[in-house]
Amino acid sequence: MRIILRHKGLEWREESPPGGYGSKEYKKIVATGNLPALLDGGLLIADSEAIAEYLEEKHPKPNMLPINLDERAKVRELSRFHDTRLEPELRKLFSQIPLYKPDHNILQKQTEEINQRLDQLSNIIEILPDSLLLAHCAFPITFSWVEALTSLFSLQISWPSKILTWNEKLKTFSAVDTELMDYNPKLKSWLRNQHAT
Prior knowledge:
Glutathione S-transferase Yfyf (Class Pi), Chain A, domain 2; mainly alpha
């Protein structure tokens, strides 16, 4: 979501959920306990896809969805692939982060699943983007997580060359580069602290 906010030149204030992620205190505000959540005036939205499309409709410039109907459908397809195929497989590794001795079977299985999803993604993406679209915005962060957990757990992740080139292109967009410069050091620091406890 922050990449979208940056790309559209919007101002925002970021706050940690009171009581922490999924806490009873936070669920009094967001019933599901989901992150991210957006509060815009009196409107509360707690779904990343809904937030992205809301921001696009309320602040349409610069466009982050194509005008062509078929192209818009393909952008949404790519976004759903991230949210329902790739990211859930990555998330299954999160339970292993604080463990002194992670479960080798889980690491192996999720390595295979992530490699399969990356291979599928390489067959879905078609051309290098000349503009930043909604569907692109989640991938750089997810790729950072894959890279960080690869280092942490010595995973054998096979990156298709097409995806590496595609990701480097995404990083050329100012909003992506700025977000990663801020996000990656925090991610690495958080992982070190979690894994050390």
